[in-house]
Design brief:
The protein is of the alpha/beta class and 702 residues long. Helices cover 21% and strands 24% of the residues. It has four domains: 209 residues, FAD/NAD(P)-binding domain; 183 residues, 3-Layer(bba) Sandwich (FAD/NAD(P)-binding domain), CATH 3.50.50; 142 residues, no CATH class; 89 residues, no CATH class. Strands 9, 10, 11, 12, 13, 14 and 25 form a seven-stranded mixed β-sheet that branches. β35 and β36 form a beta hairpin. The chain is globular and about 80 Å long.
Length: 702
């Protein structure tokens, strides 16, 4: 890595982009052509994009997905979302200080008539669900328009460097997410009846059954016969002091920076949320050379797959369950984070506070459906369906199945697909949506001769690629189900091909080989990080499944690397590291420690839980105290809250604060049946008036 740019990566093949110059508040800087403005600023060490008009609070990035307006900047005189606007040569970018000014009108401009485009099927969102649906429709020859607001299809798949779960046959298990995105994109290119528009944002659904979209800088009205909404999900936020400081942002935004835009956004991070999103973000951080100080989770156990959490703990990342964040601390950016234990009622246990020195706090406390397009279309009586996270929050592998089902439902409504939708699609989708089961550790094979796989996954999750790649067909799952734990049968003999070790998405399989030395068998460990840490002859620290250092009378956990195997063609990005370990520890060895667990080092500020000054509405800087006061004064209508103190009135349209508002009503003892939700207006995304009017010359690159 060079400075803030990631120039090498253990998994990603990096092609350096073209350098261009731009200015930031008059200072000449260098960025990459067509990268997002926000990423160019981060790469130059700039995290403050402006200051709020109400209290001069520093504003930075939060979602990096166009869902909020925290990253607003002025580019060539126009206010734009920096996370959704491409950098151009010579672009003049300025911070937003207070309220942005209105550009001078050019009386020479003329408005144009916006034509209506009739389409058979419109799909909004080209993530795993949208791509899968479009492929099904394309196979049937149905004219389909697929739109997405990014410059590449794939949605969150583009951000995923880890291997996917599920099965090899149905959901590309063992293949990395960004590669799955490429596979689906290539499949779609083979279908003539599907047209895809990138850099195209759906902005509203209207009562005349028109979907308004902005393609580049052109406003277009689309009237579909059938509409399928596959818009994915947005990240939820937590209320706590300092939650709007630059350096507090969603885990998805972080993955966008490090995996898509190749910007080393941080040096030390702390993650709130032990679901798959948070845990995977921590793993991606370590792949990008960023230290993960800790992961905290409010539940008594991580909500994500245990094998994901195990990967982090083995690398040296502590996971604190039954903990919450009390505050992010700093003046203009995050400098430290304070956490505390919580009791069974989710109240902080004071006296248990810990404060960590970090520059970034990732929020990964769940996702909310981006379903406003679907709900509004239903309200207007359109023929509409939804799939993927817009329908139900689940893994991307499940989204591919719900996308297929959604595509077939649309085809059936057109009378083109005339058979029943296969029940196995629904069944497989349900399995892939299922939460992880209980953890039940099983005794490993007692044999101490020959060669054998050792399985370190003890939780029922939908995953079985190891059964598909075993050359001897000896790996099975309990009850022959995709969620059963894997084991090796006695029906055959392992030949030591190591395919199961290389493909496992959880890095939860090792191979123990007694054939050369029964007292010090060779153990093959999966590894996806920096090769220079495990070169032949180097000493490495080996851990067990819980992250504890392997030790014995003859060893303290340090072992010499005997060999490193890389099958780049078949299993790209995965290294197989071989060491010799004493026989009593060989079957327990699974991890290679990369960073040392560190205790908190800073004094802890005295912070009450959710004090009045904590910001709830980020756009309008409305605090918890202001909202509590209104609720206690009898406000039971979120529309009235907007009128009283501007809560939810900002550019994001309450996308961030709305879930927190409902929780505040509940915490104040209000029966939620008494609360009236806000009215969603048809326009869900900000659009420049010049774009809606069709005025030429309003582009940021002119």
């Amino acid at each position: 890595m060079t400075g803030k740019r990631i120039t090498k990566h253990p998994v990603l093949n990096i092609k350096p982009g073209e350098d261009i110059s731009f200015s930031w508040n008059g200072e000449k800087l260098t960025g990459k052509k067509d990268e997002m403005i926000s990423s160019a600023l981060f790469a130059n060490g700039i995290h403050i994009f402006g200051h709020h008009y109400r209290d001069n609070a520093p504003q930075g990035m939060f979602c990096a997905n166009g869902q909020c307006s925290q990253c607003l900047v002025i580019a060539n005189g126009l206010a734009v979302k920096s996370c959704m606007t491409s950098l151009k040569q010579g672009m003049n970018v300025e911070s937003v200080e207070g309220v942005p000014g209105i550009p001078e009108a050019d009386v020479q401009n003329e408005c144009r008539t916006v034509e209506i485009l009739d389409v058979e099927v419109l799909i909004i969102g080209a993530g795993p669900a949208g791509l899968s649906a479009a492929i099904e429709l394309g196979k049937l020859g149905i004219e389909t328009l697929l739109i997405d607001d990014k410059d590449k299809p794939g949605g969150k798949l583009v951000l995923q460097t880890h291997k996917f779960f599920g099965s090899v046959e149905d959901s590309y298990a063992g293949t990395r997410g960004f590669k799955i995105g490429d596979i689906l994109e290539n499949d779609l290119k083979e279908l003539d009846s599907v047209n895809i528009w990138l850099n195209t944002t759906a902005v509203g659904v209207f009562s005349d059954k028109i979907v308004g979209v902005v393609k580049g800088d052109e406003y277009i009205k689309i009237k579909p016969k059938k509409l399928l909404v596959t818009t994915g999900a947005r990240e939820k936020m937590l209320p706590f002091p300092g939650n709007t400081l630059p350096g507090v942002y969603g885990a998805g935004a972080f993955q966008t920076l490090v995996n898509r835009d190749l910007v080393k956004a941080s040096e030390k991070i702390l993650i709130v949320g032990g679901g798959n999103v948070g845990i995977i973000a921590g793993y991606h951080a370590i792949q990008a050379g960023i230290e993960v100080v800790a992961v905290i989770e409010g539940l008594s156990r991580v909500g994500g797959y245990k094998v994901h959490a195990d990967k982090l703990e083995r690398l040296g990342v502590p996971i604190y369950t039954s903990h919450t964040v009390l505050s992010a601390n700093g003046k203009d950016k995050v400098e430290s984070v304070t956490i505390a234990k919580i009791d069974d009622s989710w109240n902080p246990v004071f006296g248990t506070e810990k404060t960590f020195e970090v520059d970034t706090l990732l929020i990964a406390v769940g996702l909310a459906q981006v379903n406003e397009f679907y709900l509004k279309a239903k309200e207007w009586g359109m023929d509409v369906w939804c799939a993927g996270d817009a329908q139900e929050i689940a893994e991307a592998s499940a989204a591919m199945f719900t996308g297929k089902i959604g595509g077939l439902k649309v085809a059936k409504s057109l009378g083109i697909f005339q058979t029943e939708i296969p029940k196995e699609l629904e069944e497989k989708a349900a399995i892939l949506k299922s939460p992880p089961g209980d953890v039940e550790k099983k005794e490993q094979c007692r044999n101490k001769q020959g060669v054998m796989p050792i399985f370190h996954c003890f939780q029922e999750i939908p995953c079985n690629p190891c059964t598909s790649v075993c050359e001897e067909n000896i790996i099975k799952t309990e009850n022959d189900t995709i969620t059963g734990n894997p084991y090796a049968t006695d029906a055959g003999e392992c030949k030591g091909c190591m395919n199961c070790v290389a493909i496992c998405p959880g890095l939860a399989i090792t191979l123990v080989d007694y054939r050369k030395d029964e007292d010090f068998p060779t153990v093959t460990l999966p590894y996806e990080l920096w090769r220079d840490r495990v070169e032949k002859g180097k000493e490495i620290t080996i851990t067990d499944i819980d992250g504890n250092t392997i030790s014995s009378k003859s060893s303290t956990g340090r072992y010499t690397v005997k060999r490193v195997i890389a099958n780049k063609k078949k299993f790209p990005g995965t290294l197989l590291v071989q060491v010799q370990i004493e026989k009593e520890n060989a079957k327990n060895a699974i991890g290679i420690r990369i960073q040392e667990k560190k205790a908190e080092t800073l004094s802890t500020p005295k912070t009450p839980f959710l004090p009045d000054e904590a910001v709830i509405c980020r756009c309008e800087r409305v605090t918890a105290g202001e909202i509590r006061s209104a609720i206690r004064d009898g406000v039971r209508d979120i529309n009235q809250l907007k009128a009283v103190n501007r809560t939810g009135m900002g550019a994001c349209g309450s996308k961030t604060c709305r879930p927190m508002l409902w929780k505040m009503f509940k915490d104040e003892g209000v029966d939620l049946k008494e609360v009236t939700d806000r009215v969603d207006r048809p326009l869900f995304v900000e659009v420049p008036l010049g774009t809606l009017a069709g005025i030429e010359g309003s582009k940021t690159d002119e």
